[in-house]
Predict the structure.
Amino acid sequence: MTPIRRASLDIGSNSVRTMVMEWTAARPLLLHDHGSMARIGDCVSTGGRLEGPLLQRAVTAVHQGAEAARDWGAHLSAFATAGLRDAGNRPEALRALSAAARAPIALVTGEQEAILNFAGVRASVPEPVEGEVLLIVDTGGGSTEVAWGGDRLDGSLSMPMGARKLLADCPALASSEPPDRGALDDAVAWARDRLTALEEAQVNLAPGLRAVGVGGTVTSLTALQLGLTSYEPMRVHGTVLSLGDLEGLAQRLRSVDKAERGRLLGEPARADLILPGWAIVTAVLERLSIDRIETNIFGPRLGILTESGGAIIANRLGEVE
């Protein structure tokens, strides 16, 4: 079988990431995983419009990501999530980003994002043992998606709560000074109060439950836990964080100012978002009485390259309403 290379371009609220995979007779192989903090979600501070320097920053990130995919000789599938969904001028912004990518961009719904997460994680882990249930949590800047199931998807939901929205309501976490413990507790309470949909969904918490986290919050926390000086995706992938690990990471990040948080993360642009993201992940685990979460670097970026992801792309290309 001749290897086939395919790439995904994920345009999120915080980052724009490109992933290149190679398909052989065995499992898909990761060739390239890179992104930049374009912070499209910052448009909430500009009246909800993605324009001016903020749009240009996103255009540059999208262009660079698409060109990297082509350099690898990969066919590109591009999609955008909550950051662009929430933009007041999304038709114009979508056209500008599509032009930068030189490819159409699918604007997926929150529910479709959850489905892509399940498809990507399911494709990246071994076949489930009998009774094993995957619970996938994706904390983004503008929304949080949860999906669950065994060998097939049983349920999913998207909640309009993300690190950026939490930060707007808990501004103490954005201070340049180290936040106090009370600010962290308030952030977890904020997230917990908005998880009623998760309870109503009646998630199947089987004994074989395997909680999996995707997205920038959990991968950044895992890299910090591992003491990585540069991002190594396949070392991050599969690492398990306990609630104790998460608490220790929060205390470490809380004890320093924003500039030092950015240095510790190796990503200064995520310094104000990491603790809000931590609070949402922690609240979800506590609400469901789960004591650990496994990091997965693939999620929707691999999901969009699966058969079910291809169907979503076909249905959403050019959709802006």
